[in-house]
Design brief:
By secondary structure, the chain is mainly alpha-helical. The protein is built from six helices and two strands, in the order αααααββα. A hairpin with a 2-residue loop joins β1 and β2.
Length: 124
Amino acid sequence: MKIILKLEALALFGLGVVLFSRLEISGWWYAGLFFAPDLSMIGYLQSPRTGAWTYNLVHHLGTAVMVYLLGIWLGLPWLAFTGALLLGHSSFDRVLGYGLKYGDAFKHTHLGWIGKEQQAAGSG
């Protein structure tokens, strides 16, 4: 099942790149800001629960789609760019095994535990 989920995420990453390519914005912006959504992890400075909430808000695929569509509907290329970037980044994260976070620990995601030692502890 994990392979299917990673292939799905890879297809969504490709979709994010295609949606971005339809905008008249330089590719340097996409490359330069690709990891900017990870700034949402700053919530972990307060608590795992707050960190999970901020991270999940930014990395939710529904958020990405809504932001992109809102940008297209309002005629705001920078907003559509943000949605395409969020879609591409969040999908790329899922290809690498990083999913939406649970409020108990950063390494506990909807795709399982991150890291081999965490997987062994989480499955026991």
